[in-house]
Amino acid sequence: EKAVNLKKDLAEMQEWMTQAEEEYLEKDFEYKSPEELENAVEEMKRAKEDVLQKEVRVKILKDNIKMLAAKVPSSGQELATELNVVLENYQLLCNRIRGKCHTLEEVWSCWIELLQYLDLETAWLNNLEERVQMTGNLPDKMDAVNDALESLESVLRHPADNRTQIRELGQTLIDGGILDDIISEKLEVFNARYEELSHLAVSRQITLEQQLQTMRETDHMLQVLQESLGDLDRQLTSYLTDRIDAFQMPQEAQ
């Protein structure tokens, strides 16, 4: 009777494993929204816990069959063979569910990381847009133009590492068919805004550089003129001091 019950327990265990495999491993999942992906992650976590909890039942079955085999070798040998099959299937199921759970957790982590990088780069784009707008109405002063140019250049020196991460994380998820529509749309919007603002900022940078160069050249010309006028003033003053008649002066002084 005990052998019959153990045989029944082994059959029930095998049936449960078959159902678990069909439910958790053979279903085709399509993750088209973050909610679907998050639900799948939580479901696989529960599946992993559920499968691992059966480890106690498997151990009890194993111990009981060993005890029976010690008392009734003929019945125990047959059950031991069935037990080995169940143990192999159970271990395989555990490994596969652990693997799928880990994969889904990695995918979810990849999605969250992508969102974080997009937030960082969006904040940078907002800052860049603000700096560009600030260069629109500058006072006609060299210091103001120079400060605006330095401020814009400091933002433009932003490293490209985050954008590289965005591209790689997005492509990894899209290649796996994970949230591909949502990610493609997000990347398209981000890239379009990045290209537009980058070109505008570089164009404004060139304009400011040219404006600053013109102001510097004008300032230099004024300084040269001022020095020349100063020299002439001093020369004329010396002529007057020495009471030199105008007709005795050089033509240019006259």
Walk me through the structure.
This protein is mainly α. The chain has one domain (1-211): Methane Monooxygenase Hydroxylase, Chain G, domain 1. The chain contains 6 helices and no strands. Keywords: Coiled coil. This is UTRO protein. It comes from Oriolus oriolus. It holds the Pfam family Spectrin.
SSE blueprint:
Elements: H1 2-24, H2 34-71, H3 73-134, H4 142-156, H5 161-175, H6 180-241
Helix pairs in contact: 1-2, 1-3, 2-3, 3-4, 3-5, 3-6, 4-6, 5-6
How many helices in DSSP terms? 6
Estimated radius of gyration: 41 Å
- What coarse outline follows from CA principal-axis ratios? rod-shaped
Q: Class in CATH? A: Mainly Alpha
The helical percent reads over 70%
Distance between the termini: 138 Å
Number of β-strand runs: 0
Low-confidence segments: none
State the domain count: 1
Protein name: UTRO protein
Pfam family, one: Spectrin
Organism: Oriolus oriolus
InterPro entries: Spectrin/alpha-actinin, Spectrin_repeat
